[in-house]
Amino acid sequence: MEQQATNIKEIARELDCLTEQEFCELLQITPLTAQGWRQSSKAPLPVLIGNAYFYPISAIKEEMALRVRKPRRKAMGALA
Questions:
Q1: Tell me: the pLDDT tens digits for 32-56?
Q2: Do the Cβ atoms of 38 and 45 come closer than 8 Å?
Q3: What is the secondary structure of 39-78 as a DSSP string?
Q4: In angstroms, rounded to a whole number, what is the distance separating the alpha carbons of residues 47 and 55?
Q5: pLDDT score of 1 more than 70
Q6: Integer CA distances (angstroms), 33 to 21, 62, 79, in order
Q7: Range of the domain at 61
Q8: Is pTM beyond 0.85 here?
Q9: Sign (positive or negative) of CA dihedral 70, 35, 56, 28
Q10: Does a structural domain hold residue 8?
């Protein structure tokens, strides 16, 4: 089982991807949440190879860039 996990990580690296476990750890979500995102087609969508999901790092970066919050601008009259 440990060898299989190592092989999956090696495949992920070759594809410039994260494994599902790494993706969940990065975003601090559960595998159930990741599954829900896949089922509702929320980005970033993974690549399925066999029974393993691989999340392209470029897609994760793009999605994170879209979610960056911009600082709020102060109202002109609110200076006190």
A1: 999 999 999 987 899 999 999 999 9
A2: yes
A3: HTTPSSPPEEETTEEEEEHHHHHHHHHHTPPPPPPPPGGG
A4: 6
A5: no
A6: 12, 19, 43
A7: 2-65
A8: no
A9: positive
A10: yes
Length in residues, the chain: 80
Q: Is the pLDDT of residue 57 over 90?
A: yes
Q: How far apart are CA 59 and CA 15, in angstroms?
A: 12
Residue 73 is assigned to a structural domain of this protein: no
Report if residue 46 sits inside a domain: yes
Residue with tokens 């990741």, as numbered in its chain: 34
Q: How many domains does the chain divide into?
A: 1
**Is 39 part of any domain?**
yes
- The pair of structure tokens assigned to 16 is 């410039």
